[in-house]
């Protein structure tokens, strides 16, 4: 991992995130999850929030994404427990990348809860491709995490990472968000683009980072979402999540 300074991105403020993936056996620059105890992993996470990453004084504002697969591996459970312990100490925001199975987000929240994590400070990302059944989504919403639809701009017939998933299009994502708002979960919804490849950038023919504001918000309004409910999703909810307790 290379840490970039604000100068590298033209003075734009960035929120530094740190991730751990039990499966890929990597801890942001540290060789192996397996070689660390849960307490050792917690110390790494806490240090990167309080003091800095990779020998710099650039501190992480968020723990995550914490990557999980399905079924959950033992090393992933250890990372989740370490994350919970760090979150208890710091009151910091956490974001989780669930496995590609609709039971995975439930299992992750249970694991975090048992380890004492604050679920109200936790984002479950990639719900677009993870929980497709409406009743199961509403069941999951009851658990109290943030509910993130973050594949806006990704519309594909064959979702190569999991071909049996009917990946929703942007309009279907909007319908899911409207359902959650109508069911009283407007304070929990988050949206993002998950841009991590060049072809998603405008320079290479993609939608770019303005896609949600330019193209999606007007469609949300056309489909009955009010400006206050959109402001909650785009401004209030991220602000609350990113604030340390
Ligand atoms: Zn992810």
From TrEMBL:
Needed cofactors, names only, are: a divalent metal cation
User: What family, per the record?
Assistant: Belongs to the metallo-dependent hydrolases superfamily. Phosphotriesterase family.
Q: Which reaction does it catalyse?
A: N-propanoyltaurine + H2O = propanoate + taurine; N-acetyl-L-leucine + H2O = L-leucine + acetate; N-acetyl-L-valine + H2O = L-valine + acetate; N-acetyl-L-methionine + H2O = L-methionine + acetate
Q: Which GO terms describe its molecular function?
A: hydrolase activity; zinc ion binding
Q: Which PANTHER family match?
A: PHOSPHOTRIESTERASE-RELATED, PHOSPHOTRIESTERASE-RELATED PROTEIN
Q: Which keywords does UniProt give here?
A: Hydrolase, Metal-binding
InterPro entries (alphabetical)? Metal_Hydrolase (IPR032466), Phosphotriesterase (IPR001559)
Species of origin? Scyliorhinus torazame
Q: What is this protein called?
A: N-acetyltaurine hydrolase
Pfam families assigned to the protein according to its UniProt record, in alphabetical order: PTE
Q: Which domain of life is it from?
A: Eukaryota
């Amino acid at each position: 991992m290379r840490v970039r300074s604000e100068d590298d991105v033209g003075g734009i403020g960035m929120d530094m995130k740190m991730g751990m993936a039990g499966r890929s056996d990597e801890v942001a620059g540290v060789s192996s999850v397996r070689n660390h105890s849960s307490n050792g992993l917690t110390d790494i996470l806490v240090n990167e929030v309080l003091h800095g990453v990779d020998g710099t004084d650039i501190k992480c504002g968020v723990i995550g994404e914490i990557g999980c697969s399905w079924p959950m591996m033992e090393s992933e459970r250890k990372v989740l427990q370490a994350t919970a312990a760090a979150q208890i100490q710091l009151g910091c925001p956490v974001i989780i990348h669930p496995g590609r199975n609709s039971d995975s987000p439930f299992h992750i929240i249970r694991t975090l809860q048992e380890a004492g994590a604050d679920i109200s400070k936790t984002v479950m990302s990639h719900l677009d491709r993870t929980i497709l059944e409406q009743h199961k989504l509403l069941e999951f919403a009851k658990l109290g995490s943030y509910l993130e639809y973050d594949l806006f701009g990704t519309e594909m017939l064959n979702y190569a990472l999991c071909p049996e998933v009917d990946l929703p299009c942007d309009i279907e994502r909007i319908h899911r968000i409207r359902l959650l708002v109508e069911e009283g979960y407007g304070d929990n919804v988050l949206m993002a683009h998950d841009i991590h490849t060049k072809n998603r950038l405008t320079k290479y023919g993609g939608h770019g980072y303005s896609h949600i504001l330019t193209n999606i918000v007007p469609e949300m309004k056309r489909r009955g979402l009010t400006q206050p409910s959109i402001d909650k999703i785009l401004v209030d909810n991220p602000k609350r999540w990113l604030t340390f307790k």
